[in-house]
């Protein structure tokens, strides 16, 4: 009986010790639960990784066909937009500015008055010159009549030869004085006309140099007039590339202030001498169409198309660049395929890049790739909206036929 009691006490003590040890270390249960959660997450990730990418629905505007295009290359040309017709109007007389009738940016017609100068002193000179001319004309008339009388008297022997010679001298002197007076009157008349400055052609006032009350000396700038319809690209090319430039070559260039717009032109003149300081040669480029800026002095940069070759090209938007490597997403059958590319130079006209290796003419690629594309991903072409009504009519016709 005592033995059974001792055995029961031993069993009870053992169970109590186990229970106490379990309460003392609760982390063992948490570790077991954590290991189970990690195992379940790894299983889920594996199932997600093994799950295929969803089918991609694309439309006709999402794809493009690789084609062979003309790839132009040539020397770089930099410069500014300048008008072919421009006039720096300067004062031809010394006078005070009375009135400036046009402001910067105002359009003018040929013959419009731009600036009026004070004509008081010049008009006085004109009046004096005209009076002298009239007096000289009267003196000449008297000298001619005296000469005719002496000739008559000389014929009858009543006048000496010396008197006749003196009359001829007085007549010639009066003739010279009349000519000089007329010349002074003409010069004064021209100066009077120059006190009114007029526009030499239809255009726009680009710069006003004087204001009312200013003193305009001879040669002082008054206003500048330009013809905005005669703009051209006055560029410069380095001397080591000038041998490639010929008159008539096409030019593509961009103008500061017209972002995203490309202009086309043609070389019209190559300067026969290089600049002494910059060692560059000036090249004039005419705009190929009527679309041209109306502001002069804008910076421009472009390329002269001295050479042209056929090459496969793709726009920059269709390329995906990772470091030094580039690739595109090609459509092969009903799935996407990542194709590594070797690209060449960039066409300055279109911004497209030359494709040296990886694609062929006629291949179809995605126009704007997405970062979510997967290699081998299935694709499906969307039905154009214009086709949907036709398909609906066909289905209705088929249903009525049944």
From TrEMBL:
The keyword Protease does not apply. Residues 29-40 have a biased composition (Low complexity). Residues 19-53 are annotated as: Disordered. GO terms for molecular function: efflux transmembrane transporter activity. Residues 126-184 form a coiled coil. Residues 240-307 form the CusB-like beta-barrel domain. Signal peptide: none annotated. Keywords: Coiled coil. Residues 19-28, 41-53 have a biased composition (Basic and acidic residues). GO terms for cellular component: efflux pump complex. Pfam families: Beta-barrel_RND_2, BSH_CzcB. Residues 87-226 form the CzcB-like barrel-sandwich hybrid domain. NCBIfam families: RND_mfp. Belongs to the membrane fusion protein (MFP) (TC 8.A.1) family. This is Efflux RND transporter periplasmic adaptor subunit. The lineage of its organism: Bacteria, Pseudomonadati, Pseudomonadota, Betaproteobacteria, Burkholderiales.
């Amino acid at each position: 009986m005592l033995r059974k009691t001792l055995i029961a006490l031993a069993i009870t003590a053992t169970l109590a010790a186990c229970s106490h040890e379990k309460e003392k270390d609760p982390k063992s249960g948490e570790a077991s639960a954590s290991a189970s959660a990690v195992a379940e997450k790894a299983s889920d990730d594996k199932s997600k990784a093994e799950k295929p990418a969803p089918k991609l629905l694309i439309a006709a505007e999402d794809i493009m066909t690789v084609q062979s295009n003309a790839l132009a290359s040539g020397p770089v040309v930099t410069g500014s937009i300048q008008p072919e017709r421009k006039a720096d109007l300067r004062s031809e007389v010394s006078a005070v500015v009375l009135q400036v009738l046009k402001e910067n940016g105002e359009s003018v017609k040929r013959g419009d008055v731009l600036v009026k100068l004070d004509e008081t002193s010049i008009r006085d000179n004109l009046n004096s010159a005209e009076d002298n001319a009239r007096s000289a004309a009267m003196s000449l008339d008297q000298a001619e009549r005296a000469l005719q009388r002496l000739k008559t008297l000389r014929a009858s022997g009543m006048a000496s030869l010396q008197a006749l010679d003196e009359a001829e001298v007085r007549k010639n002197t009066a003739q010279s004085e009349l000519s000089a007076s007329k010349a002074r009157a003409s010069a004064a008349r021209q100066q009077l006309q120059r006190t009114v400055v007029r526009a030499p052609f239809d255009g726009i006032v680009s710069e006003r140099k004087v204001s009312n009350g200013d003193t305009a000396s001879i040669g002082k700038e008054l206003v500048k007039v330009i013809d905005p319809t005669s703009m051209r690209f006055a560029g410069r090319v380095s001397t080591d590339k000038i041998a490639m430039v010929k008159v008539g070559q096409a030019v593509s260039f961009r103008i500061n202030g017209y972002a995203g717009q490309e202009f086309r032109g043609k070389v019209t003149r190559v300067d026969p001498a290089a600049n002494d300081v910059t060692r560059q040669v000036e090249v004039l480029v005419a705009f190929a169409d009527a679309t041209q800026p109306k502001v002069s002095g804008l910076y421009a940069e472009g390329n002269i198309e001295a050479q042209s070759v056929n090459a496969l090209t793709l726009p920059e938007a269709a390329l995906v660049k990772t470091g030094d490597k580039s690739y595109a997403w090609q459509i092969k059958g009903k799935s996407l395929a990542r194709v590594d590319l070797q690209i060449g130079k960039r066409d300055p006209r279109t911004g497209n890049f030359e494709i040296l290796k990886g694609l062929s003419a006629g291949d179809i690629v995605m126009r704007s790739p997405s970062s979510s594309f997967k290699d081998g991903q299935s694709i499906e072409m969307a039905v154009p909206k214009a086709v949907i009504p036709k398909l609906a009519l066909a289905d209705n016709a088929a249903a009525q036929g049944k």
